[in-house]
C-alpha cells in the first residue's frame, strides 16, 4: 500500500513539474526573448511568477478507487485530480482563469540559449530609465559613479544567490531544483508557521513596482511632450491626460499578443536614442565640465539618487523563470557576469558623459537638455516607447490583483470578476479603468520622474534586489555557506536596508512637498 501511494505521488509530482516547465518555456518562447524590452521582460516573466504562485497553493487530492488495496491495478487517467483548497479541479489551460500566462503558453517550444537569456537581462537593466542616471551623478558626483558600479556587483551577486535558493540536495547528494519562482522561495522561508506569508509580501512588492512603473510611463510621456513643444498652449498635466486617453484601451486587453509585436522595435529605438544622446555629448567634448564632478554629495538629494540607480538594475523578479528556461542552466552565472559588467560600463559612461555636457543644468530626464531641434524627434520616439511599454506592467499588475482578490478560490476577498462564460464582468472592467485613471492622477499630482523613480527603487527595488535575496539565502542555505558568503549576505542586507530606508524617507518627503505645492496651485 505504501509503495503504491508513493508511486502515485511520484507520478503526480512529475506531471505537475512537466506541465509547469512546459507552460513557462512555451510562454517565453512564444513571446520571444529577443523581442522583450526592459520592463516588458519583467512583465512577462513576472506573469510567469504569478502563474507559479497561483499554482503553489494547489493541493493534490488522490481519489481512492475501488481497487486501492495492494496489488490493485494502477489508477486510470482521470483518477488523479489537482484541486485548489480542495474545492474542485483546476480550469483548463485555455480558460480565462488560466490568465494571460495560460493563453500565451505553448507546448514543445525550445528553450533559450545563454545569449538569448543575456539579451533579456540586458534589456531589463538597460531600459529607458537609464535616462535618469545623469541626474543621480548631479547629486552624487564620483560617489554616484561608484554606486553604479557597486549596484551592478551587488545585483549580480544577489541574482546568483537567489537562483541558489531554488536548489537543494536530495538523498543521493545531487543538487536538484525544488522551487520555480521568487514566490516559492519566499514561501519556503516562512514555512511552516506562515506558508503563504512570504509569497504575499513578494506579490505586494511586485504590484507596487508594476503600478509605479506605469505611473512613471505616464509622467515621462507628459514631461517629454511638454518639453518637446513648449510653445504650444498645452501644460504637462494636459499631455499626461492625452497620454492616458491613448492608454485607456489597455483596460480591455485580453492578452498581450498584439502588443508584444512592437517589443523589438521599442528596443531598437531605445538604443538609437542612447546613441544619439552620446553622439551629441561627444560633439561637445571640448566644453566638458570636469571641475563640476565632485567627491561631495548632496545629503538631502543623494539618497534619492540611490533609489534611481537601484531601480535601473531591477531584474531579480524574473531570474528564476529565466534560469529555468535555459538550455544549460550552468551557464547562468557566466551570463550574469557579462551582462552586468556590460551594463555597468554603459551606464557609467552614459551618466558621466551626459553630466559632463550639461553639468549643473542636468535635468531629471536627460533628453530635456538636448537642443529643441533634436529634442522633439528623440522625445517623440521615447513617448512612443513608453506608451507601447505601459500595457505590459499594467496587465501583469491586473493579473496578480485579479488572482489574489477575485480568483483565489475560498481565499478570495471579493466575488469572481469573470462570468461563467469567461468574460470580464462590467464592474471588473470598471476597476481596470479605475487603475488606469489612478496612474493618471498620480502622474498629475506628483509629476516628478526622479522622485517617483527614487521612491520605487528605495522601496521595492532595494527589497527585491538586495534585502530579500540575502535574507532568503541565509535562511535556506546557512548551514552550507562559507564564512565569506555569510559576511557578504549580512553586509548586503545591512547596507541595503540603510540605503533603502534613507532613500525612501527622502523620496517620500520630496513627494509630499511636491504634492502640497501642486495642491496649492
Automatic annotation (TrEMBL):
Residues 111-507 form the Amino acid transporter transmembrane domain. It is a multi-pass membrane protein. The keyword Protease does not apply. Pfam families: Aa_trans (PF01490). Residues 66-104 are annotated as: Disordered. It catalyses: 4-aminobutanoate(out) + n H(+)(in) = 4-aminobutanoate(in) + n H(+)(out); glycine(out) + n H(+)(in) = glycine(in) + n H(+)(out); beta-alanine(out) + n H(+)(in) = beta-alanine(in) + n H(+)(out). Antiporter that exchanges vesicular protons for cytosolic 4-aminobutanoate or to a lesser extend glycine, thus allowing their secretion from nerve terminals. The transport is equally dependent on the chemical and electrical components of the proton gradient. May also transport beta-alanine. Acidification of GABAergic synaptic vesicles is a prerequisite for 4-aminobutanoate uptake. This is Vesicular inhibitory amino acid transporter. It comes from Rhinopomastus cyanomelas (Common scimitarbill).
